[in-house]
Amino acid sequence: MAAMSDEPALLRVRVQPRARLDEVVGERGGAVGIRLTAPPVEGKANAALVAFLATAAGVPRSHVEIVRGASARDKVVRVEGVDGAALRRALGLGAP
């Protein structure tokens, strides 16, 4: 579980839907690459992203919100209840 925080963490992500595994694949251009098995139809990939990040951060799904890019591969996600550094560690990334 990541460290608790009063300030929400904002995370730039680039989603690759229809992958073989749900996984973090690193960082490029300031965005975290996340592969998801879900297809990009009817909000399935967005729901999978929210679930993936909530599980990694150890917070309820209701604490994760896509604030920009809901219909694009590049998104900005807000995660409440965890700080940015702890979220990055939970995703297997280094410090920003």
Explained architecture:
The protein has 96 residues and is of the alpha+beta class. 22% of the residues lie in helices and 31% in strands. It has 2 helices and 5 strands. The chain has helices at 44-57, 84-90, and strands at residues 9-16, 23-28, 31-35, 64-68, 74-79. Strands 2-3-1-5-4 form a 5-stranded mixed sheet. The radius of gyration is 12 Å and the shape is globular. The two termini are 19 Å apart. The mean pLDDT is 92.
- In percent, how helical is the residue content? 10-25%
Number of helices: 2
The major pleated sheet works out as: 5 strands, mixed
Number of strand segments: 5
Q: Give the percentage of residues in beta strands.
A: 25-35%
Q: Strand-and-helix sequence, N→C? A: EEEHEEH
What does the overall shape look like?
globular
Biggest sheet strand order reads 2-3-1-5-4
Question: Distance between the terminal alpha carbons, to the nearest Å?
Answer: 19 Å
Mean pLDDT: 92
List the uncertain runs: none
The value of Rg in angstroms is: 12 Å
Structural class: alpha+beta
Keywords for this entry:
5-stranded mixed β-sheet; 22% helix; alpha+beta; 96 residues; 5 strands
Secondary-structure blueprint of this entry?
Blueprint: E1 9-16, E2 23-28, E3 31-35, H1 44-57, E4 64-68, E5 74-79, H2 84-90
Parallel strand pairs: 1-3
Antiparallel strand pairs: 1-5, 2-3, 4-5
